[in-house]
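Page 47, continued from p. 46.
Same chain as before, 246 aa.
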Amino acid sequence: MELLLLGALFATLVFYASEWATKTARVRTAASTNPISLATAPSVIAPRDVPIVAQWLRHAAGALRPAAAKVHYLPRADWDRLLVTDGEGLPTLFLQMYSGELRLTEPTTGKLVRGSNHHLRRLGIWTMDLGAVGVHKIAGREGLLQPGSPMALVRESHNALDGNAIAVHAAAGRPVGYVNTTTAAGLSSLLDTGSMLEAISIAFDPTESGGRQGGVKVLAGSPELVRHLLRERPVAARMAPAGAAC
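Result:
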């Protein structure tokens, strides 16, 4: 399937290269016999052609991406069996640096576990995606959001907009953003009962795409759990496949 798509992509590029060469030759010939300059000559590739090419390239890339990404994550059929705790009541998962992020990994298979997996809450693991956090933020400029950096969950029970509000601060009290309302509804009850929760940044995307700034991914849990997840790679752990999509 990938070879067919790549072959089709190559054929398309060859076609447009041929069109470009042909139209360029015509423009240069016209320019040599007519009192017009190349600057005022018609465009080599009509503007209407550009969106078609871009759309086709996006479609080809999208067709390749899902099949490649899916294989790197723990299959749903294995969730109940492998997303469990050890003899000390701690999850068997661990965090490894992968593609610029700290990724939850199942040790016996080397498969990645998505932060949105609903089994994680049962294991005491909370993950949050803070959107619209760009490098213009002080914390971003000071390098306080890199994976592994300590974060703080600050309860704002008197917040006028949301009584469950939880702010996220980086080191030195630098404000980063807020936990989304759905997650805050459950997490606030833990904080209100005095549960000790530790948080770390697991990913920071400083880029901006489509007018939307990048974001920070945060993982939280008991101090013991967070230290456990950051332990050295278990001996039985397999390496996650190279090139796994994140």
